[in-house]
């Protein structure tokens, strides 16, 4: 390719290249030729070479060596060279380049040029890449051109002034008088530039905003002229007179009318006129109407006008263009809290959008539908949401279930309806619900005392139908364990009676225990339910004992521990089994013991403190049996000492008067000091504290408490401890394996230490947890233990 090839020929050769390597070769040869000609004197081809270099730059290849040539061409007296030079400056230079400072004087000279086209070149370049220093130097020249008589120059100067105000906001006061005078122009280009400039000035200076609120009537008149004007081929777009200018004026009116009664009243009639006279069948009309709606909702408008705006958005929902439907639902989402009744009128159309094929439209429709749920429409709207849940895409299931649960909790017309709704969600999308769903549903069931029989029958039928939904299976197992006697009785007024045999119930629970689909937590629920049924049935206790004993050697440590503890209840503590496994009281949702995945030991200690205290008081129960009960979860060979909280001096007189007041029994608890604790580990937002609960000559009971101060939950936390060989160590089951974020919860674990040889007590603790997807593991050495509080 010859070095003197024309621009069109170079483009043709580059486009004809078959490979990227061939294209690079053509461009490298042409760039080398352009460099060589740049070094030569003026040969009349400078603008031609720079134009080719700009095309090379557009293709993404380096063209920085042409920056100085741009400066030379801008200083040229020829218009064709000056035009290419300014174009090159806008493409190759920016305010970070030192070369941009060299063209400041040339731009200033050209702003005073006799030709309007040369002036416009300088204005466009300054408005495109002018730095803050250039803007300060040339701002007076721009203000002078804003007052020129040439409309072509004034519209260019207005847009250049916008760039200067963005770069140097304090220069806005310089352009305020000229900007206001531009509103009297008839030229639409000048008006458009003036409105953009005034909008920029008002957004950046509150004082300027107050000044321009006085021009609201003038803007209203301009807008009325556009709305009521006849056909103008120069400004008509799809039957709308200059929609670009209308949108800009409406946006400025929104800023001027915000939080101002006078300005809002002055534009109310205009907004109503625009809303009723604008055709929304074309995109241009929809754009004007959408801007009108935003203005109505942002100013202090009349209630009737706001209803009209909501109805416009409702019409947008029927538009075939998905983009228009999307922005309509986005706007309705913002105003649904303030204009709830007006938005409710379009509930049917919004629900129909749930069937849209577009994922973004479907998501917006879901969010808006959930926001429209109220006590009045909860039944009808929930039917639509449950129908949507059965066919919604996987990425929306979690959001849908969460929204349904929140709505049901706030507006449920009855407890039965609430329970039925949650069970329907669990059946449909049980794998996508949040972790707290199971304890929340259990708490709801316990409070609905009159629905226990109905709930256990319904959950039993769901359990024998499908055991793949873990959350549903967990709730079903819990209910069968608690209310199995109601299930076996077969008398239920709420539903048709079904005769269920003891073997059928145990078969269902054993199926859950043996299923490969059951998680360890689900197996724990099933094993506990099986154990609780031992006090609710009469003929299959031996089968339950057999099932429990099998899992005493289970590979899962949690399940094995439960089985061992339950075996101990059958053998050594069979006389206490009925009391320990009796039906749980109503769960208070705000109680500290209300956590998910709580161990059986934690349940007995926290949920039934009254039972334990009564065992201490009754004279027919020896004291050693109380110690045995407290030691039930430990499995230690030697009985532990009774808890100091249960063996304090107030117990003496109380035991002599059977049936004493519960408040008298626990009266001594108020003066019991809190055991001191020390921080043994603090890293990655996880803090581990150790406190000594009880200490004897040969033993000690300590509690490890882990908290989380990070923004995310800490999961899979495990604590492992090691002590000298002469010390016997026993760790109770932890209260959970997830530490909630922001210190909203904690995980505790009790450690029993038996030191018969009275050696120096030391302990090493390994902390392992998952934080933000990464596994962390640390080991801490504990050489001293805090003293107990008593």
From TrEMBL:
PROSITE patterns linked: GAE (PS50180)
Positions of the UniProt region annotated as Disordered: 587-607
Keyword terms, alphabetized: Cytoplasmic vesicle, Golgi apparatus, Membrane, Protein transport, Transport
Domain of life of the native organism: Eukaryota
Localization of this protein: Cytoplasmic vesicle membrane; Endomembrane system; Golgi apparatus
InterPro entries, alphabetized: Adaptor_Complx_Large_Subunit, AP1_complex_gsu, ARM-like, ARM-type_fold, Clathrin/coatomer_adapt-like_N, Clathrin_a/b/g-adaptin_app_Ig, Clathrin_app_Ig-like_sf, GAE_dom
Gene Ontology BP, a term: vesicle-mediated transport
Primary residence: membrane
Regions crossing the membrane: none
Keyword Membrane: yes
A Pfam entry, by short name: Alpha_adaptinC2
Protein family: Belongs to the adaptor complexes large subunit family.
Protein name: AP-1 complex subunit gamma
Native species: Coregonus suidteri
């Amino acid at each position: 390719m010859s070095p003197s090839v024309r621009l069109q020929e170079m483009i043709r050769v580059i486009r004809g290249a078959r490979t990227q390597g061939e294209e690079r070769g053509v461009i490298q040869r042409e760039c080398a030729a352009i460099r060589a000609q740049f070094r030569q004197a003026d040969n009349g081809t400078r603008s031609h070479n720079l134009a080719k270099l700009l095309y090379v730059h557009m293709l993404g290849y380096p063209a920085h060596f042409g920056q100085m040539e741009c400066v030379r061409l801008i200083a040229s007296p020829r218009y064709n060279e000056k035009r290419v030079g300014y174009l090159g400056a806008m493409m190759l230079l920016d305010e970070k380049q030192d070369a941009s400072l060299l063209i400041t004087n040339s731009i200033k000279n050209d702003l005073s040029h006799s030709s309007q086209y040369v002036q416009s070149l300088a204005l466009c370049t300054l408005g495109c890449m002018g730095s803050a220093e250039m803007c300060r130097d040339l701002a007076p020249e721009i203000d002078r051109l804003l007052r020129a008589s040439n409309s072509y120059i004034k519209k260019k100067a207005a847009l250049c002034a916008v760039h200067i105000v963005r770069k140097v906001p304090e220069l806005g006061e310089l352009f305020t008088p000229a900007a206001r005078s531009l509103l009297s122009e008839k030229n639409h280009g000048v008006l458009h530039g003036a409105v953009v400039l005034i909008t920029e000035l008002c957004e950046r200076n509150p004082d300027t905003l107050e000044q321009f609120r006085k021009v609201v009537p003038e803007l209203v008149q301009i807008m009325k002229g556009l709305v009521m004007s006849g056909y103008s081929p120069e400004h008509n777009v799809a039957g709308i007179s200059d929609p670009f200018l209308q949108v800009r004026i409406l946006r400025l009116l929104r800023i001027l009318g915000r939080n101002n009664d006078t300005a809002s009243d002055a534009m109310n009639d205009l907004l109503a006129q625009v809303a009723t006279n604008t055709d929304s069948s074309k995109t241009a009309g929809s754009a004007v109407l959408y801007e009108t709606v935003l203005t109505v909702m942002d100013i202090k408008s009349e209630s009737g006008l706001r209803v009209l705006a909501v109805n416009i958005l409702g019409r947008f929902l029927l538009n075939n263009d998905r983009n228009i439907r999307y922005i309509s639902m986005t706007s309705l989402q913002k105003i649904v809290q303030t204009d709830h009744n007006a938005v409710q009128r379009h509930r049917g159309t919004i629900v129909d959008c749930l069937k849209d094929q577009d994922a973004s439209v479907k998501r917006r429709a879901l969010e808006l539908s959930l926001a429209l749920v109220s006590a009045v429409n909860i039944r009808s709207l929930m039917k639509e949401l449950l129908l949507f849940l059965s066919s919604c895409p996987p990425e929306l299931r979690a959001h849908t279930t969460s929204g349904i649960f929140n709505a049901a909790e706030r507006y449920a017309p009855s407890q039965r309806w609430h329970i039925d709704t949650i069970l329907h969600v669990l059946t449909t999308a049980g794998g996508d619900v949040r972790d707290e769903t199971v304890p929340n549903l259990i708490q709801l069931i316990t409070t609905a005392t009159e629905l226990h029989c109905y709930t256990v029958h319904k959950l039993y039928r769901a359990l024998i139908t499908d055991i793949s939904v873990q959350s549903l299976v967990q709730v079903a197992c819990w209910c069968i364990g608690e209310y199995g006697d109601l299930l076996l009785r077969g008398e239920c007024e709420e539903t048709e009676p079904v005769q269920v045999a003891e073997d059928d119930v145990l078969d269902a629970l054993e199926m859950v225990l043996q299923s490969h689909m059951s998680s360890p937590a689900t197996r724990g629920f099933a094993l506990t339910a099986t154990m609780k049924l031992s006090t609710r049935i009469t003929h299959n206790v031996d089968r339950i004992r057999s099932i429990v004993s099998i899992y005493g050697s289970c590979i899962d440590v949690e399940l094995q521990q439960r089985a061992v503890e339950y075996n101990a209840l059958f053998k050594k503590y069979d006389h206490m089994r009925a009391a320990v496994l009796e039906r749980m009281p109503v769960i208070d949702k705000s109680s500290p013991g209300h956590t998910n995945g709580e161990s059986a030991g934690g349940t007995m200690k926290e949920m039934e403190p009254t039972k334990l205290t009564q065992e201490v008081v009754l004279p027919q129960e020896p004291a050693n049996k109380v110690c045995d009960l407290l030691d039930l979860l430990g499995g230690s060979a030697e009985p532990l000492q009774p808890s100091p909280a249960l063996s304090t001096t107030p117990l003496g007189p109380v035991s002599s008067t059977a049936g004493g007041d519960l408040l008298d029994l626990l009266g001594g608890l108020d003066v019991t000091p809190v055991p001191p604790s020390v921080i043994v580990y603090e890293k990655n937002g996880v803090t581990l504290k150790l406190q000594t609960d009880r200490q004897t000559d040969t033993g000690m009971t300590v509690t490890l408490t882990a908290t989380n101060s990070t923004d995310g939950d800490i999961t899979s936390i495990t604590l492992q401890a090691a002590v000298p060989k002469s010390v016997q160590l026993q760790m109770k089951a932890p209260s959970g394996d997830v530490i909630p974020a922001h210190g909203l919860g904690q995980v505790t674990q009790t450690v029993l230490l038996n030191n018969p040889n009275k050696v120096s007590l030391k302990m090493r603790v390994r902390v392992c947890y998952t934080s933000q997807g990464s596994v962390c593991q640390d080991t801490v050495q504990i050489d001293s233990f805090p003293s107990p509080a008593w």
